[in-house]
Amino acid sequence: MTRLAGPVRVGGSTAPSRVLFGPHETNLARGRALAGRHVAYYRRRAEGGAGIIVTETASVHPSDWPYERAPLAAECGPGWTSIVDACRPHGTLVVASLGHAGGQGSSAYHQSALWAPSRVPDPVSRELPMEMEGPEIAALIGGFRAAAALAAQSGVDGVEIDAGQYSLLRQFCSGLTNRRTDAYGDRARLLREVIAAVREAIGDRILGLRLACDDGAPWGGITPETAPVPGGIDYLVPVRGSAFAGSRPDLRTEPGFNLDLCRAMSGHTMTVLQGSVVDPALAERALDFAGLVEMTRAQIADPDLVRHLRAGTDPRPCVLCNQKCRVRDPRNPIVSCIGEPGSGHETEDPLPRAGSGEVLVVGGGPAGLEAARVLAVRGFDVELTERADRLGGMVRVAARLAGRDRLARLVDWLETEVRRLGVRISTGVETLAADGRPVIVATGSLPGPRDYVVDGGCVLDVVSVLDGAALPDGPVVVHDPLGDWTGAGVAELLAAGRRVTIVSPDPVIATQVHDIAAVNARLQRAGVALVKRSRPRVVRRDHVVVEDVLTGECRELPCAAVIHCGHRLPRPALPGTAIGDAVAPRTIHEAVLDGRRAAVAL
């Protein structure tokens, strides 16, 4: 057994593994209370071997309502008890996260001024908060005390105080947001008082602290050298970032980006390594200086992560894409994972029942691979055929985009699994007719229609370009009507060797991605010309005519080729149960989900 999967003493309790499932937004709440969906979600990670589960951060005072389904501690007592009852049979410790977002919250729900140490507008929302006075500070400390006492009465093993990237406590600790001249100009004072109040309320239960130790703004913010680590805590989670700097990198950032920060803070108390840790080998090495490792996204991608560690098998990989696990969004999506669509849906995700007989799966992209995997797990005799010479489908194409190579790890794992499960695989084979067996059709997509005229010019589909199609010499124009990762990724990729312009009908490039600012900054650094609010009308031999979508004004852009990144259409195929892009081209998540549903329903 690895050290990571072995037990560890934390405070006065013992966790069955050193893997921590950290607090994160889920949108699983009913109103502002922890719900049955939370219970099933956390139970599943406890079953999989998580040592400590830290529940979604609950606001300690009604003045904090950072997102619509944010838990409120006063309403969380029954939920905490149910979560403890669900996790206790597996030995997993349950810790309640308590916090207040302060000036980094939202006034959209309670329609009151945001609380903050000083009148410093948030750089993201631009909202100006109120400066807290004595009554508000007393109410905040009292809120932490009352919330901690309720959590203890509900049976949790401990409390984690959120003084992390998006917390009011961080705002008091940082010179960026605390400009007070009264007693709380001592920036660590409020944190010390909250720690003391919570310790008094919970007694000898575990007390953890998630602490922003690097604001990413050394000109006035917290740095590792000035981070105010208080005494009286049982573990410390050093985190990086603030409203002034990113704190949740995606698949472009190497996992374990907080290794040095955690090592630097390890002399204070038991430390927890946090920061995109999805590689068990890296987590194991970190135990040379850390007591625990937070592997939250890794356990969203595979709830059985620790079981795999104990069995010596490979867990389903987290590719760090943020596409389904980052849910702070006006649409209130439920937390999930592109490769594990059951995450967040434990209360309705059906368990596969045993089956038998032969099944043909046509198509070896993510939908076909997941269908074949689940069918094989159920006991079916499965044959999978794929037209291309390699399995993986469009995921392998997407993995060629700039910065998105980690996506291929998901289909690598699926391919390994179907081979391990004995699925018979044929590549380079196009199946045109059924032979009496049940057929699941995962044949993918074709380029869709174009709403512009081609008059002697060269237009190439983005998939063919990423597959290696030769481009003529000269500048290229990337037509991006979707605003997702595709257009921006191929533009950045090609800009390394030629002049590139990206044309979008939107006022900002890549409007559908989470990190819009970062994407646009990378494009500008790469020298890509950004033509916004425009669409192509005519593609000619050496230029394309584009039209302003609002004014109708036309202009010419020189180009040797246009790369089309528009919608795709299902590829015509043989009769059967269609899944994935063969139904409607969408994302990896929908492909995997379709494959699983079809395999469970058979």
Description of the molecule:
This protein is 27% helix and 20% strand. It is an alpha/beta fold. An eight-stranded parallel barrel has the order 3-4-6-9-10-11-12-13, surrounded by five helices. Strands 16-15-14-17-29 form a five-stranded parallel beta sheet, covered by helices on one side. The radius of gyration is 26 Å and the shape is globular.
Number of strands: 29
Q: What amount of the residues lies in strands?
A: 15-25%
Q: In terms of per-residue confidence, which ranges show pLDDT below 50 for 5 or more consecutive residues?
A: none
Which of globular, elongated, flat, extended, rod-shaped describes the shape?
globular
Distance between the termini: 38 Å
> How many H/I helices?
16
Quote the average pLDDT. Answer: 95
Structural class: alpha/beta
Strand order of the largest sheet: 3-4-6-9-10-11-12-13
Mind telling me the C-alpha Rg?
26 Å
What is the element layout, followed by pairings?
Blueprint: E1 8-10, E2 13-15, E3 19-21, H1 36-47, E4 52-54, E5 58-59, H2 77-87, E6 93-99, E7 115-116, E8 130-131, H3 134-153, E9 158-163, H4 168-173, H5 189-202, E10 206-214, E11 235-240, H6 259-265, E12 270-273, H7 280-286, E13 292-294, H8 296-301, H9 305-311, E14 358-362, H10 366-378, E15 381-386, H11 394-398, H12 408-420, E16 424-427, E17 439-441, E18 445-447, E19 453-455, E20 459-461, H13 462-466, E21 476-479, H14 485-494, E22 500-503, H15 516-525, E23 529-531, E24 534-540, E25 543-548, E26 554-558, E27 561-564, E28 568-570, E29 577-578, H16 588-601
Parallel strand pairs: 3-4, 3-13, 4-6, 5-6, 6-9, 7-8, 9-10, 10-11, 11-12, 12-13, 14-15, 14-17, 15-16, 17-29, 19-24, 20-27, 21-22, 21-27, 22-23
Antiparallel strand pairs: 1-2, 18-28, 24-25, 25-26
Helix pairs in contact: 1-2, 3-5, 10-12, 10-16
